[in-house]
Amino acid sequence: MPRFIIEREFPTGLQIPCDRNGASSCLGVVDANATEGVTWVHSYVSDDKKKTFCVYDGPSPEAIRRAAGLTSLPVNQITEVRVLDPYFYF
Questions:
Q1: Residue 89: per-residue pLDDT
Q2: Cα separation of 84 and 45, whole Å?
Q3: List of the chain residues with pLDDT < 70
Q4: CB contact set of 6 (below 8 Å; sequence gap of 6+)
Q5: Which residues touch 19 (CB under 8 Å, ≥6 apart)?
Q6: Long-range own/partner contacts, residues 78-87 (CB < 8 A, 24 or more apart)
Q7: What is the pLDDT of residue 37?
Q8: In whole angstroms, what separates CA 88 from the centre of its chain?
Q9: Residue 19 — φ and ψ, nearest 5°?
Q10: For the chain, is the Cβ count within 10 Å smaller at the N or the C terminus?
Q11: Half-sphere exposure of 74 (CA within 13 A, CB side)
């Protein structure tokens, strides 16, 4: 399955509370993604919470865009990536 980095911008900052509501929001994204065969692996969030870099596995950029549309998440850029492991060379 191809792996992608999804860059998202949140002009007012990403606010996910550390409670049941936040957990429910995240699980809603996971469930919506599953309808398109997409898996959210993990994300990195900038200090100001205005930008995220999300690692996703999925069949195509189009599937990722469709999944994002189901949850109204922004998609600024999708880049297909491969792992470069520095320990491979030892």
A1: 74
A2: 21
A3: none
A4: 52, 53, 54, 56, 64, 68, 75, 77, 78
A5: none
A6: 78/4, 78/5, 78/6, 78/7, 79/4, 79/5, 79/7, 80/2, 80/3, 80/4, 81/3, 81/4, 81/5, 82/3, 83/3
A7: 98
A8: 26
A9: -150, -170
A10: C
A11: 14
Name the residue with tokens 């969030």: 45
Residues 7 and 76: beta-carbon distance below 8 Å: yes
Ordered by where they begin, the domains of the chain are: 3-89 (3.30.70.3090)
Token reading at 52? 């995220």
- What rounded mean pLDDT belongs to the chain? 96
Distance CA 5, CA 61 (A): 10
